[in-house]
Records
---
Amino acid sequence: MKLKLIVLSFVFAIGFSSCQKCVECTDCPTGVTLDQAEFCESDFDSKDDYNSAVALVEAFGCDCK
């Protein structure tokens, strides 16, 4: 039983660490064209760069979730 719990914890840890934080930006106003609709944190050099990019797209009126 203890071994099963350890293996399950290991599998959960691997799955959790591989998750990416991504947002999809849609519902942009007319005239706003995006080169990409999805932004993932792993595509940027830092979390600050990622947050800035998402904030900029939202400032143009797009809805990012």
---
Amino acid sequence: MRTRRFIISAFFAISTLFFVSCFGQSRLEKLVKSINDECPYSAGESGEMTSAEIKDGNAVVTFTVNEELMNIEVLQANPDLLRNSLVQIFNNPTDDLKDLIDELKRCNAGLTYVYVGDVSGKSISVTMTSDELKEMSKSNKDKNPDEFLDAQISITNAQTPVRIDEMTVMTRLEREDDCAMFYYDVDESQFSFDEVEDAKDMVVEMLIENLRMQKNQPENTAFIHACKLADVDIAYKYRGTTTDREIIFIVPIDSI
């Protein structure tokens, strides 16, 4: 049984941990160079960070994205989904992302993310201005774990349904009770509910280990961080397309 988990968010909320003295160069030039020196930087199945440059006083970071996972056309038609997801990520930063925000503030610079499809070459961009970054960090009043998680769920659902493999289609992601629940339809000619039921504890342990490994990967960090802040578990519901039989696996967020 494949347990690949799919999540689309404003991923690539990169951290930059290579700040050194700015002797001989402006602080922003040094920041952008430190990012560019890491390129290409893999974000797993989602794609890679491709390059960084300075444009109109902002750090502009370009990503090449896997269009099987990120539908550029959907995001072009719904730009607020991507922007809101990014705003929530910046309002609820990890420690590494906070370092990047603080450095951009010192540079008096904004940040632009450009996402380019790996097949079509189509692109979409979103910018956080210097003033917006400064306003976000003035206080914690705008932090809202529920809004943060809701933004991750909304941008994911805009991409669904998505085929995960030859027997599995992810249909949606919902918040149910105290869980963020991934829904999958499975082909029962290739998926045995009886076998999976018998190995349920083992599957949950495998999911826990997978999520522990994924939590620091760029494409997964925002979603797992959102679940932790909102104190919700991560769950997976598989439904057979022939019998409608279902099985649910729940991963306690404290175990990740």
